Automatic annotation (TrEMBL):
Belongs to the LysR transcriptional regulatory family. InterPro entries: LysR_HTH_N, LysR_subst-bd, WH-like_DNA-bd_sf, WH_DNA-bd_sf. Keywords: DNA-binding, Transcription, Transcription regulation. This is Hydrogen peroxide-inducible regulon activator. One of its GO terms (molecular function) is DNA binding. One of its GO terms (cellular component) is protein-DNA complex. Residues 6-63 form the HTH lysR-type domain. It comes from Edaphosphingomonas haloaromaticamans.
Amino acid sequence: MSTYLPTLKQLQYLVALRDHGHFGRAAEACFVTQSTLSAGLRELESLIGITLVERTRRVVRFTPLGLRIADKAQRVLREAEELSDLARAAGKPLSGELRMGVIPTIAPFLLPRILPRIRAEWPDLKLYLREETTSAACDSLHRGHVDCVLLALPYHCGDIEHEDLFDDRLFVAFPAGEAPTGSNAIEADAIDERRLLLLEDGHCLKDHALAACNRPELRAEAAMLGTSLHTLVQMVDNGLGVTLLPEMAIKAGILDNTDIIARPLDADHPARRIAIVWRKGSPREKEFRMLAHALAKSHVD
């Protein structure tokens, strides 16, 4: 075995540079000076005898082999983190640091209800939250930037394990005076695709809403303009169209001070499943399941 092995610090520098594409920003992410990071990478290149990064005044360009090594370094760093996770899991559960990704269509509506319970039950837990779209959150999970993600299923998030929390029903939101009279629930066929407002690409709620309606033409016809659920609510309240909202947002008061009428969606699958997901084989699986059970109970309470 070679005596000269890369250090974890050198691998951290390499991965940070790959992620940020800039020496200054990579150094900030690693809490070191730019000269320290640059020197560490040169030592790494000298150690393994190859050039990993082509340096110019304006561009940081990884060599093909440099990219492959950076990907491998990311996996090594994740395995090293899991060593400490393994030791932590064997001791006091849900203590120390835990980094959780949360998607934007859940974070502002569910977290204010569940965080007090988490603080009360596990006062030694330092929970750091990172709000991202589902695709970005899953990428952060597999890169080791977060330990678990609170998201909505179904969604393909790679090689993961998960624990379901609860179903979150979808509602059709109408401007004042536009809600159909009669039946309380709204059938998907009754939605006017020319008036439908949905979130921009990248938000899985859009895909869940379209799948629940089971009307392929909605994807092409819908005016997908909203950057957030709050933006969609304002558009509907101003008579610009109708939209689909999750029940948790309505219960959290997103329709307060509006004239919007919301009716439950009548469909074969009118809900999304809220769940916690984590990397398959994580040594903290028991902790994540404990957390999931507490969050599910908080929702019921």
